[in-house]
Amino acid sequence: xxxxxxxxxxxxxxxxxxxxxxxxxxxxxxxxxxxxxxxxxxxxxxxxxxxxxxxxxxxxxxxxxxxxxxxxxxxxxxxxxxxxxxxxxxxxxxxxxxxxxxxxxxxxxxxxxxxxxxxxxxxxxxxxxxxxxxxxxxxxxxxxxxxxxxxxxxxxxxxxxxxxxxxxxxxxxxxxxxxxxxxxxxxxxx
Length: 190
Fold this sequence. Notes:
six-stranded antiparallel sheet; alpha+beta; SH3 type barrels; four-stranded antiparallel sheet
């Protein structure tokens, strides 16, 4: 079997994270269109994640946030996004690097992405340490478009009260389940 020296698996994950970045940038600039809303899961202990100790204690490994009715100050940069949410009536600002995201879903569109997040180990170059094959999963191909430079944009999206965190919330309750396709299905079998 040939060795993948180009590391297509990492390139695909980076491209899909770029698509998530573009979607959040559009939401920061224009608000959420129609019924679209996002479930975003991330590792709370990943490098660069900023959240209160209270939230980190409650979700020591992974948590899911919902961007729907009540969030504010959504700012998107090239490397991360920051958003204000309310947890049990306490306002919090979270900073989440795109590399920490494990799942992104938009139930209104039946769309879901799952990502492999490599654990940070001191002295190990991410590009040099391989991920297991098939870790990036996609329900649809990422659109081929150039990303604009991500300027710090802020959006207020006041409205109906909705839960900000949904630790293990089902994404497509009462809706069709999104189809998740593994990248392995596109690999050449030898």
